[in-house]
């Protein structure tokens, strides 16, 4: 039962005639490997609006729900307009009154002009009619402007969608008193998205336009590929990082506004040795592989310390310890010890 814990006996000297352990090998070849760093990215819409009222009042209606899709101009909420409606009605009544006086003075000035031209009335009477007409005209125009202002103000009591989009969280409720500082909700267009990535300042010299970016989910699955198209000219003092942006296309099932994802920024691609993940063993925090070496027509396994880089599919990149052409053992590694005879099986 303890067979798996027993240390194999020291192998006989090469050439002693003992058959080696059959193993599969993989010949090391240099493969282009991306040199990258991973950061947390926030997906943001290029067109997103926070809705706040332009007037104070009590909410009387909420016409949408969080997540609702709305069209530009669609009513989202209504603030009690009764007080403003009364002000508009008063202004409209004043406008009608001034209009009636203006219409009368318009007719009167025409009548007085005819009488003056006929020599029936004096210049003083005609000029008094002109003055009354001018005053009535100014009063009517002022009342009309005031009425229009009150009407425009009334429109503020209806909160509408500024563009087609999706409604965000709604933290207010019907009956709440709201003011110009109250956040009612948000509307996000949910297209033309961007990934906001903060790159540490020590990488500043490596950041450049067009750098490839891979967006990943929490399971390291690739969501989208993109490239940096914006680099902030200044450092964010809070995060001590440089904001870079990469455009992404909106996909309701994959990427949404305000979503957090992983962003892999690929700085460069360099040829490196790669080995299968199964070939790597670890002892005391150090990584090793077994390399098959030939001597006098016989093969033996030799343990080699390696420095691992990023994973590439089912392989590890190796930054140090291997050379192109090395035969790395990829099977039965749990039975190997340094210097043990092996027999190379044909490659499939």
Nearest-angstrom radius of gyration? 40 Å
Could you give me the name of the CATH homologous superfamily of the largest domain?
Efflux pump adaptor protein, beta barrel domain
Share in β-strands: 35-45%
Number of helices: 2
Beta strands, count: 23
Indicate the mean pLDDT.
Answer: 86
Low-pLDDT stretches: 1-17
What's the SSE pattern? EEEEEEEHHEEEEEEEEEEEEEEEE
Describe the global form.
rod-shaped
Structural class: alpha+beta
Instruction: Briefly note the CATH topology name of the largest domain.
Output: Elongation Factor Tu (Ef-tu), domain 3
For the record, the CATH class of the largest domain is Mainly Beta
Share of helix, binned: 10-25%
CATH architecture of the largest domain: Beta Barrel
Write a structural description.
The protein is rod-shaped and about 140 Å long. The protein has a 15-stranded mixed beta sheet that branches. The chain is α+β, with helices and mostly antiparallel strands and 348 residues long. The protein has helices at 82-117, 123-155, and strands at 21-23, 25-27, 30-45, 48-51, 57-62, 69-70, 75-79, 158-160, 165-167, 177-178, 185-188, 193-200, 212-216, 222-227, 230-236, 241-248, 260-276, 281-283, 286-295, 298-312, 315-320, 327-329, 341-344. The chain folds into four domains: 19-31 and 271-344, conserved putative lor/sdh protein from methanococcus maripaludis s2 fold, CATH 2.40.420.20; 37-48 and 189-270, Efflux pump adaptor protein, beta barrel domain (Elongation Factor Tu (Ef-tu), domain 3, Beta Barrel); 55-79 and 157-188, OB fold (Dihydrolipoamide Acetyltransferase, E2P) (Beta Barrel); 81-156, Helix hairpin bin (Helix Hairpins), CATH 1.10.287. The two termini are 34 Å apart. The longest helix has 36 residues, at 82-117. Helix 1 (82-117) runs antiparallel to helix 2 (123-155). A hairpin with a 4-residue loop joins strand 15 and strand 16 (241-248). It contains two helices and 23 strands.
């Amino acid at each position: 039962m303890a067979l798996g814990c027993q240390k194999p006996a020291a192998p006989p000297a090469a050439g002693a005639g003992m058959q080696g352990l059959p193993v599969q090998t993989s010949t090391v070849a240099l493969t282009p490997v991306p040199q990258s760093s991973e950061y947390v990215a926030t997906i943001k819409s290029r067109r997103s609006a926070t809705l706040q009222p332009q007037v104070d009042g009590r909410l009387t209606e909420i016409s949408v729900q969080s997540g609702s899709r709305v069209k530009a101009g669609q009513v989202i909420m209504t603030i009690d307009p009764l007080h403003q409606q009364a002000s508009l009605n008063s202004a409209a009544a004043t406008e009608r009154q001034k209009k009636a006086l203006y219409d009368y003075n318009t007719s009167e000035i025409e009548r007085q002009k005819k009488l003056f031209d006929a020599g029936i009335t004096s210049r003083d009477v005609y000029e008094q009619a002109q003055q009354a007409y001018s005053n009535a005209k100014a009063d009517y125009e002022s009342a009309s402007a005031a009425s229009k202002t009150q009407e425009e103000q009334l429109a503020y009591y209806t909160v509408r969608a500024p563009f087609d989009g999706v409604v965000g969280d709604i933290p207010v409720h019907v009956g709440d008193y709201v003011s110009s500082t109250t956040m009612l909700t948000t509307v996000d267009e949910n297209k033309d998205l961007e990934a906001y990535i903060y790159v540490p300042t020590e990488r500043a010299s490596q950041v450049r336009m067009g750098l490839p970016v891979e967006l990943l989910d929490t399971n390291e699955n690739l969501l989208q590929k993109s490239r940096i198209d914006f680099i902030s000219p200044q450092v964010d003092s809070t995060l001590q990082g440089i904001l870079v942006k990469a455009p992404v296309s909106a996909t309701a099932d994959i990427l949404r506004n305000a979503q957090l994802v992983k962003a892999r920024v690929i700085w460069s691609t360099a040829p490196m040795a790669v080995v299968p993940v199964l070939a790597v063993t670890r002892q005391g925090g150090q990584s090793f592989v077994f390399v098959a070496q030939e001597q006098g027509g016989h093969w033996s396994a030799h343990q080699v310390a390696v420095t691992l880089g990023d994973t590439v599919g089912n392989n590890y990149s190796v930054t140090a310890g291997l050379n192109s052409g090395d035969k790395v053992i990829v099977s039965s590694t749990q039975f190997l010890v340094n210097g043990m005879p092996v027999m190379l099986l044909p490659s499939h």
